[in-house]
Amino acid sequence: MISLRRAAYVAVLVLVFLPITATTLTAPQAALGEAEPRKRNQSQADSATRDRQVSDATRTRRVSDSAALARRMLAKLKVARALSIRGYSRKRFQSAKGQHKARCSTREKVLARDGRKVRRNASCHPVKGSWYSPYDGKVLKSEKYVDVDHVVPLSYAWRSGAKRWSAAKRRAFATDLRRPELITVSHSANIAKGGQGPQSWRPQRRAHWCRYATSWITVKHHYRLFVTRAERTALLNMLRTC
């Protein structure tokens, strides 16, 4: 009888404590299962933050390197007084009459290069697309509002030494797609700029001053055009925004 009572007592204890033990073991496991997705999400967020920080640091370093290179190139440019505008004409920078023309004009090539989702017709002319104007931050939805600007204006280049060039070199300058000489801008910004240099005109967006100055210097350095003292000072001031 004592053995039977003892067995029954043990059985009751097992039934009472078994759910508690199961609950005790299961609860931490469930909590661990819920924590794992949170840890993965946090890890992914941390990884994305690190990637952005690396990307920002890389971008900053590239801008800094570009500005440093621009300063070195500017230091090598001759400083002189501007030449006379006498004899200047846009035609002096254009192809001779009767010369074979490419299927796409320089303007059409720049519009296709700088635009977004550009669609051209059979004649190479853009009929659809959008263009960003870095001078004033405008997004242009129609080609008719877009101008292709010479960063270093033709008339300014003329007074900086292009006056003494051959006709072939002036044509190469006016159609140069390799250097940052040709960009798409809004018609209003292009009109405001005209043929002025950086000592007289700067892009409306201060955020573009660094890029504008480095582009100007790159073009002038490649073509060995000289700068005036006022122009050089203005370029150095813009490079401080890099």
Summarize the structure in words.
With 242 residues, the protein is mostly helical. 54% of the residues lie in helices and 11% in strands. It is built from seven helices and five strands; from the N terminus they run ααββββααβααα. The chain has helices at 2-76, 106-114, 154-159, 167-174, 187-193, 209-223, 229-239; strands spanning 116-120, 126-133, 138-140, 146-150, 182-186. Strands 1-2-3 form a three-stranded antiparallel β-sheet, covered by helices on one side. The chain has a two-stranded antiparallel sheet with strand order 4-5. Helix 1 (2-76) crosses helix 6 (209-223). The longest helix has 75 residues, at 2-76. It is globular and about 60 Å long. Residues 1-32 have low confidence and may be disordered.
Distance between the termini: 96 Å
Number of helices: 7
Helices and strands, in order, run as HHEEEEHHEHHH
Helix residue percentage: 40-55%
Principal-axes geometry comes out as: globular
Give the strand content: 5-15%
Strand order of the largest sheet: 1-2-3
Largest sheet: 3 strands, antiparallel
Task: Tell me, rounded to a whole number, the average pLDDT.
Answer: 83
How many whole angstroms does the radius of gyration measure? 34 Å
Low-confidence stretches: 1-32
Helix-strand category: mainly alpha
Q: How many strand segments?
A: 5
